[in-house]
UniProtKB/TrEMBL annotation:
Residues 16-425 form the Major facilitator superfamily (MFS) profile domain. It comes from the Bacteria. The lineage of its organism: Bacteria, Pseudomonadati, Bacteroidota, Flavobacteriia, Flavobacteriales. NCBIfam families: 2A0106. This is MHS family MFS transporter. It comes from Flavobacterium soyangense. It is a multi-pass membrane protein.
């Protein structure tokens, strides 16, 4: 692989790692403030209905829209990321996500404009999904395509750290608002503050992304003229197996995360009697374990292989699902905190090496599209309806069966990982 001939244009370690981390932090902050609002705010302000459960389900349905937008974003941004480069594509993806988020903060509610309010909310939620669909793959490639031999999983975990950091920022923001505003103030204007203030983070990320240059791997495809005309067609013709099993291999990551966050928050504040503030504190504490386990998993992944680490953690998640009732269903603060910490630690262990694993399934000329599509298709199957499915299961069959739902997803991922094989010559 040829390096960039101009040493002034080579990405420094600082730019590579911080540039990949800052973008995903901003993107996930934007994504998670919507998740919090979809549980805590939007049911009352955008979906006033006959019952709190129906309003919550309608609100969570808009939450799922972004997961259908993400593969479209992957296809569009992935196409240009593989054709014209990672840098420009990453900048545009960041702006798409950021602008959509800020506009949500200014939307009038159902009481002001009626049915137009939820329709506009869905439109800009779709925009959030488009941006994130293009962001994640490019950020991971920025990291791993600049990584030295034997360090790809370590470099690849830096954009993954954006998830716990973004979650801490979003949860912390909602907690701060809950502590400083009355309930009336929070629902009147307080909920808008996180959405509008994300503009500051977007400006910072935009500046940093402009300083990044192209990765050596992408420059090599330009020099050797290995680019393909339409990456999507190449993927469907030559990499169907990688797309299918890569998607299934990532599903449990999404199911785990959204059961630990969106579903748990909804269930605890409606059926278990926890206040919004108390449960957010418990969730924020568990996110620390999420963040710590990501670099630990990367070390193991570089030493023992990405696939083996993911297989072992899938088994652990399947076992963890069997304890849903005794932990989350207990209603006990200590046991529920333990539940959240264990779940988020397992989430970090599977999330840390995932970006590197999915990226290594595809060659450079279709890697942006391939890695993004597998990750975001998994988002549809593993996250788009996970909170709604879990609420329905819990209401009709009990919390134990929500755990079985998680275990079933983990078993499916386990077999997918056994069936998939990475082509070592691609990198």
């Amino acid at each position: 692989m040829k390096e960039n001939s101009n040493p002034d244009k080579v990405n420094s370690l600082k730019h590579v790692l911080f540039g990949s981390l800052i973008g995903t932090t901003i993107e996930f902050f934007d994504f998670y403030i919507y998740a919090n609002a979809a549980v805590l705010v939007f049911p009352q302000l955008f979906f006033p209905g006959s019952s709190p459960t129906i309003s919550t389900i309608e609100s969570l349905a808009t939450f799922s829209i972004a997961f259908f937008a993400r593969p479209i974003g992957s296809a569009v941004f992935g196409h240009y990321g593989d054709k014209i480069g990672r840098k420009t594509t990453l900048v545009v993806a960041l702006l798409t996500m950021g602008i959509s988020t800020v506009v949500i903060g200014f939307l009038p509610t159902y009481a002001s404009i009626g049915i137009a309010a939820p329709l506009l909310l869905m439109l800009f939620r779709f925009g959030q999904g488009l941006g994130l669909g293009g962001e994640w793959g490019g950020a991971v490639l920025l990291a791993i395509e600049n990584a030295p031999p034997g360090k790809r999983a370590w470099y690849g975990m830096f954009p993954q750290l954006g998830a716990p950091i973004g979650l801490l920022l979003s949860g912390g923001t909602f907690l701060l608002l809950s502590d400083t505003l009355t309930n009336e103030q929070f629902f009147d204007y307080g909920w808008r503050i996180p959405f509008i203030s994300s503009a500051i983070l977007v400006v910072i990320g935009f500046y940093i992304r402009l300083k990044i240059t192209e990765t050596p791997s992408f420059l090599a495809t330009l020099e050797t003229k290995k680019q393909v005309k339409i990456p999507m067609i190449t993927l469907l013709n030559s990499y169907k197996r990688e797309l299918v099993f890569g998607t299934l291999a990532a599903v449990t990551t999404f199911v785990t995360f959204y059961l630990m966050t969106v579903f748990s928050l909804s269930w605890a504040t409606t059926d278990l009697g926890f206040t919004r503030r108390d449960f957010l504190i418990m969730q924020l504490f568990s996110v620390v374990f999420f963040g710590i386990s990501i670099p630990i998993s990367a070390v193991f992944a570089d030493k023992f292989g990405r696939r083996l680490v993911l297989i072992i953690i899938s088994i652990a998640i399947a076992i963890f699902g069997l304890f849903f009732s005794s932990l989350l269903g207990s209603g006990n603060t200590t046991l529920i905190t333990l539940f959240l910490c264990l779940g988020m630690a397992l989430m970090g262990m599977t999330y840390g090496p995932l970006g590197t694993f999915l990226s290594e399934l595809f060659p450079t000329e279709v890697r942006y599209s391939g890695a993004s599509l597998t990750f975001n298709f998994a988002g549809i199957f593993g996250a788009a309806f996970a909170p709604i499915i879990a609420i329905w299961i819990a209401k009709n069959f009990g919390i134990t069966y929500v755990g079985y739902y998680l275990s079933a997803a983990a078993v499916m991922t386990f077999f997918s990982l056994l069936l998939i094989r990475k082509k070592d010559h691609l990198f």
